[in-house]
Design a protein that fits this description.
The protein is mainly alpha-helical. Helices cover 46% and strands 4% of the residues. Strands 1-2 form a two-stranded antiparallel ribbon.
């Protein structure tokens, strides 16, 4: 019976420490919004719904890889009936998400997902302004 104030005090300290990040962000005026990414100006729709791409884009890319490598299927019909060439660098990175730093890295850093292993095989996209092809003299 005499331990009741100590137990309640301990619970209050625990709850205060456990919820500190929430209260700190509220006091600082921060929100839990995701990263501010640059969306492509020329395309209005992705190959799949936005919610699906946020949560399961890797499933789609793995499915594409399996279709191209094992089944030799190179066309994908999107949910809206539009046909796309199945290609990470030719479709996703060339047409829409041209900057790895502005798109891929921001989301992966925010989510703590680590470095995507796409770049083990694929070339990292470079903005057109930074790529300079020089002819040998």
């Amino acid at each position: 019976m005499r331990d009741r104030p100590i137990i309640f005090g301990g619970l209050m300290v625990f709850l205060g420490l456990a919820t500190f990040p929430i209260w700190y962000n509220v006091a600082a005026g921060k929100t839990s919004r995701g990263p501010d990414i640059k969306l492509p100006a020329q395309e209005k729709e992705c190959v799949a719904a936005t919610d699906y791409m946020r949560s399961s884009h890797m499933d789609l890319l793995v499915e594409w890889r399996e279709q191209v490598v094992r089944q030799h299927v190179r066309r994908f019909t999107a949910f809206n009936g539009r046909n796309y060439n199945i290609s990470l660098t030719g479709t996703c990175l060339k047409q829409c998400h041209t900057s790895k730093a502005d798109f891929c890295d921001r989301c992966h850093d925010y989510a703590g997902a680590g470095t995507p292993y796409c770049w083990d095989c694929h070339n990292e996209p470079r903005p057109a302004a930074t790529v300079a092809h020089r002819l040998p003299q």
